[in-house]
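Notes from the 1:1 (GR / supervisor)

We went over the backlog. Supervisor wanted to see one worked example end to end before approving the batch request, so GR pasted a single chain during the call. The sequence is below; no edits were made to it. Supervisor asked that the structure be written out right there so they could see what the output format looks like.
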Amino acid sequence: MSTKAAKPSHAPAKRPTKPRGVQTHEVRIIGGLWKRTKLKVSDKPGLRPTPDRVRETLFNWLGQDLSGWSCLDAFAGTGVLGFEAASRGAKQVLLIEADAALVALLQKAKDHLKAEAVHLQRGDGVVAIRQAAPASLDLIFLDPPFDAPLLEPALSACARALAPNGLVYLEGPTRWTDELLEPKGLVVHKHLKAGAVHAHLLRLA
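Structure output shown during the call:
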């Protein structure tokens, strides 16, 4: 008995799976000039955009108008904290990021927003804080990957770089107390726990 040859399949080929590092979702700026603007977010391991609720609280603490402020986002990641600051009028925001693919995404976001106050630098966030001019920064964002041992050295470098009324935003998996921070010249000004995240606003001791 003869059998018919199978007909060639005309079903569309399956799309290849996206490689890690390709943006797969978005995060939105929640206030200021670029309110509701969405930024592309990569799926890289360890990348955690600060949640909307936490960012809203942070900028309520800081005040919505950051006109004239000089800011440094030492572990920029998505850049959303730095872009939020620029959206609210900061005169200069330096984004530091070690990962080349993330720097490329940050550059696209900067170009899209025409964010002239935002400057990008690929490099080490701890080194960037250490190299900042003394008393030159009004706000430092510290939000490194939770599994990286970066907070201790970064915090140790902050006091020298902060202006007299400067502030540090610290986000991490555990709470930092005055007892831990005072040897670094810092104390807690505000604290919030949201899920697994501890958000702190620090000032000079």
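Supervisor's comment: The domain at 23-204 is CATH 3.40.50.150 (Rossmann fold).
Batch request approved.
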